[in-house]
Amino acid sequence: MPRIGADDAAAIAAARPLVDSHCHLLLLDERGMLDESLQGAVEGGVEQIVTVGISLDDSDGNRRIAEEHPGVFFTVGWHPHEKAAPDAAQMRALDELVRHPRAVAVGEIGLDQYWRPGYHEVPMEVQRRSMRAMLELAATHGKPVVVHDRDAHDEVLAALDEVPGVRGVMHCFSGDAAFARRCTDRGFLCSFAGTVTFPRSEGIQSAARTVGDEWLVVETDAPFLAPVPYRGRPNQPGYVGATCAAVARLRDSDPSTLAATATANGRRLFGLPGPSGGDVLRGA
What we know:
43% of the residues lie in helices and 15% in strands. The protein is α/β, with parallel strands linked by helices. It has a single domain, classed as Alpha-Beta Barrel (TIM Barrel). Strands 1-2-3-4-5-6-7-8 form an eight-stranded parallel sheet. β2, α4 and β3 form a beta-alpha-beta unit. It is globular, with a radius of gyration of 17 Å.
């Protein structure tokens, strides 16, 4: 693990309390890391987690985890890597699932034009049908959407414009400051993940410096994209403080102040209860 200085460690410790606005607890559970990750989240100052669905079965598995753990909420999604758009029966099941009281959004949905052997081979027309079906599901239920956008900025915004009134968050924001403005103009927040701490991420860092306070949240995307100083490890929700501290440093802001801002924005976006409601993570 890369070494960090005392100032960095203090900044990470100060970045709390937090909401991890996007992670995949079911994938951590499949690695045998769920209990470890939830305990680490509590120790890292994370009060609430949004665990994100990528298919019907995955969303239902995240529902189970959310039901079993205070402070955990879930989304109902259909990832652009799914080989086919949801059929009628699957849409009925997704519609039922999104009505669950702990379902806070529709996502992860979107478009992915990063083509690499072994990564995905889903044709864009299939991806577009999937995204449109899920956007309409969100509009029907008045839910925010969690958008996956990889190398597809213009296409994603065009798809969002086709379903007026849908709002949400650009997950693992990968654009620059100009693209961030195009997103916020449409009512979408920008969610900064561990990528903001990576070398050669100047565009993402420029967005993190300039996006308005009311338009940013932080996430882990665990088990993926662990931030510096945890690169090389499976990511966990407890590491979100490192991302928050990095964004604070870029904005010349106090980490605790930025944590409060990102947490308030995450709770507003997903309709999460405040800590006084008691629906927060609990340690062992």
